[in-house]
Amino acid sequence: MNKSVDQLKKYLLSGVSYAIPFVACGGIMIAVAIGFAPMTPSGPDFSHAPFLKLILDIGSAAFFFLVPVLAAYISFGIADRPGLVAGFVGGYIANQVGAGFLGGLVAGLLAGFVVLFLKKIRLPVYLRPVMPILVIPVISSFVVGLIMYAVIGTPIREIMTFLSGWLASMGTGNSIVLGMILGAMIAFDMGGPVNKVAFFFGAAMIKEGNFAVMGACAAAICIPPIGLGLATVLGRGLWSEEEREAGYAGLAMGMIGITEGAIPFAAADPFRVIPAIMAGSMVGAVTAMLGGVGDHAPHGGPIVLPVIDNKLMFAVAIVLGSLTVALIINAVRKWSSNRSVHS
Question: In angstroms, how far is the first alpha carbon of the chain from the final one?
């Protein structure tokens, strides 16, 4: 069992190591663009800042490749070069159907194992040269694409519809429960479909004159990358150099509300990182709700401070949530490290 888990981690880390430069490049360029653009009640305004808009577009282009590259190189870790095509195709489709980084993980693992199966089929000698460059890419891409569109895409759309209706039916009566739900949803898939349902619910509430829901979301949005970045600073010995570099990028992205800055950590260790960031975002969202934080712009992170009601509690919510993430994930990693040493 442990051997299988270790092997799975190896596959995931293969994808993460190639995806981190895309996260850092795209995220930091987006951070610079948003950070210097004027903030209005409707979000960053690039109408009079064409150069910043150009930086934003370039950063967005780099960021777009995050999920396809993650999926492709997870597949590469499993099946070597023949797995790249199906991995890229599956990752692209994960973006198209709104499956986010979790869809990318599924696509990468699926592509890798499909290609691995195809590689084991015994064929006549004269067919072997065309297998890795023609037969395997075509068949594996078709299988992965079919599953991603037909099996994964439809349920995701239905889940988003259900979650939107569920949040709308809850109202804002119980602020603590609503804050916990919004925080958990924002952190769960870091920019994926569940995150977007919570975000768009908060944005819709702005139009209704209720700024508290977006206030909770705005605090929760930045906590995963800031919390994980903080963890790499507070517990340097628990993290590799590559992870610490991803942590610095996460801190920068968190400051301007890009939750995806946490993806490299979550992709490499989802079963420990995702619960930790969900806990932190829940703490931040509930604190914001109880503290009367309101956000007038459909965006999050410290960058929206000028349009925040009760700025002090907004900062307190982010600090408490980020510390929660950092302390939990460092404690878990330290415990796991000590356990492996003594086993």
Answer: 15
